[in-house]
Each structure stands twice: as structure tokens, then as C-alpha cells.
Write a structure and sequence with these properties.
alpha/beta, 6 strands, globular, 250 residues, Rossmann fold, 9 helices, six-stranded parallel sheet
Amino acid sequence: MAAKQRRLSRREKQRQQRDQEHMVGILNQNFGMRHITPLTPTQEDMFKSYQQGNNIAAIGTAGTGKTMCAMYLALNDVLKKGGYEQIIVVRSAVQTREQGFMPGSKEQKEALYSVPYSDIVNDLFGRGDAYQILKQKGMVKFMTSSFVRGLTFDNSIIIVDECQSMTYHELDTIITRVGESSKIVFCGDTRQDDLATSRNRAEVSGLKEFLRVIKRVDSFDTIQFTPDDIVRSGLVKEYILAKERLQVAA
């Protein structure tokens, strides 16, 4: 039995080595990300600010491409294999907190929240396995804000998405995780607050207060997106403009 287990272990190691070599081959030979350019003046401002080395708070209307731009810029940096080694995507898990206990491992619970980022990466590379490959290579990681305490992110680009649904304590915890040679990008919309409908009335969005603080931090640049920047679709733009004219709350 022991000898059989050792043989299985050797086979498993050989299989893992083959998989690793296969992924390296993909990354080196036929793993290219398509080039995108800013579609609006505000997206262009975000590109320029990022390339100047700023930390960024991209705030504003849904459908303006904030997260897509952040992922694209971060992937460009990480794939250059320069100072940045990985992208850390952090997102709030407000809905999970509302649902209470959910079965499954931490990875299974978080999988649902990582879908938008998987879709973005796969679209940028034009292949359905791109996100999984980068994840296995340790170049992209996803976690919810519930699991960042005690960690330090060195040589990383941290993208904090849906940050309007985080308390000030969560935002404070995340930004104090930024280690050496790292950059952070916050994406959110102060008008889309999942905490506003939370059953836990003690939880209040901390984004507005957080923005007041980071405006006093020289290395931060706040990029404000408006309905004029919506690029998702004509329908989304028309709907949001109509909602704003009628002052209908989400």
C-alpha cells in the first residue's frame, strides 16, 4: 500500500510538472492580451493617472468601464514581469453576510464573486481559460474583504471593486494591507450601496468618508465618472439618464 501511494505521488508530481510546463508554454507562445484604448475622456484620464504611478479612486456611474480599465492596466503591468508580481482583486461579500452560513470551502464561497473578473480577463485574452491560467500561475488572486486582515500585499496591484458596499472599517483595513512596491485602485459608485438595504443597520457605507481622507493623500488621484462615460450599451445609458432625471433611487 505504501509503495502504491509513493507511485501515485510520483505520478501526481509528474502530472503537475507537465501542467506547469504546458502553462509556461502558453504564456510564452500564444497567450496575448488584446490592446484596448480609452473610449471616453474620463477613461483616458484614468489611463494617464495610472501610468503616472498614482493610486486611483475611480468613482461614478455603472457601465463606464472602471473595472475593465483597472484590470487591463494592472494586467499590462504584471505581464511585463517588472516590479509587480500579481493582481489582487478584493470585493465585498455583503450578499453572503446577508445569507448567513453557506456550505462549501472558502474558494467555493468566493467563486461566485470572482465571475465578473474571470469574464473580463477571458475577454481581454480572447480565450475561455485565460483567468484560470493566470490564477494557477499566481498572477491573479481573488478574495473578499472578509479575508484581508493580517495580510500584506507586496509587489502587487490591488483592485478593490464595489467599494461603495464596504464599511469605512473594511476600506481602512484594505488600504493598510498595501505593502512595498504596490499600487491600489478603488472602483465604486456612491449611488449603488448594497449596505443601504442590509438588515444590519449598523453597517453603513464608508466610501464617502474614505474619499474625504484619500483626497488628502498626495499619491491618490480621484477620477470621477458620469453618465456621459457609459460605454456598456445605449440602453444602459438611456436608462441611467432617465433614472437620474426622475431622481429615482436604486
